[in-house]
Amino acid sequence: MKALIGRNAERSTNVRVETAAMDVLMVRLFDAIDETNMAWVIAADQALRNAFGSMLIDLVPSYTTLLLHYDCQQLTHSEAIQLIHKALSGLAPVDTQAGELHDIPVWYDESVGPELPLVAKRAGLSVKALIEQHCNHDYCVFALGFAPGYGFMGLVDESLATPRLKTPRRKVAAGSVGIADRQTAIYPLLSPGGWNILGRTNVPLFENAKRGEPLFRPGDKVRFRAISREEFEADGGDTTPMEERP
Fold first, then answer.
1. Partner of 214 for a Cys bridge, out of 15, 42, 107, 149, CB 3.0 to 4.6 A?
2. Which helix (H) or strand (E) holds 35?
3. pLDDT score at 163
């Protein structure tokens, strides 16, 4: 079932509500990933949280959608759709400058970033130029997922876009910074992964590990900053080389 909620003249897009499960609705705002989407996604997130209140179980914003889990003991399926309609009527984008800007120091080196030469070669750049280009942009955090604290960010310059590895690694070190297509991200913990790894950071991705609060939130911006091995080590960084190669 789909319900059209209206047309936003400025973005020329229809907001659609799709049934994802018995008590879960997918609110689709856009069909394509774009950095300007976040002003609308965040506005919708705020409006829906306010409208549903205690009837909301979970709400997960993403690149173009919001996944809304509501309490079916308090709302029927049709009532939930009507409430979404009401909450998003006249929706206006928020000021995305309100999101926090995170400065992330990264040690870019082939020992911890084995795909540095590959990504540089594909882009027709030297490794040094690749690093400069990866650092020369404030990346928007579109969504959290895959692992706790893992922020999907973008968009990287088209020249740096690189497909995921054909054979994912079984182990990617915590703090690894990678690229997949036009996205970039940091692995918050040791885990499998198929992204192209460029370097490593020692920044913990939880502000308060005991409460499990992620450092990044959708709408935040991230700026990478290249540092030397000496700086990385002085900050307690793990210089153990990436052992496993795909």
1. 149
2. none
3. 95
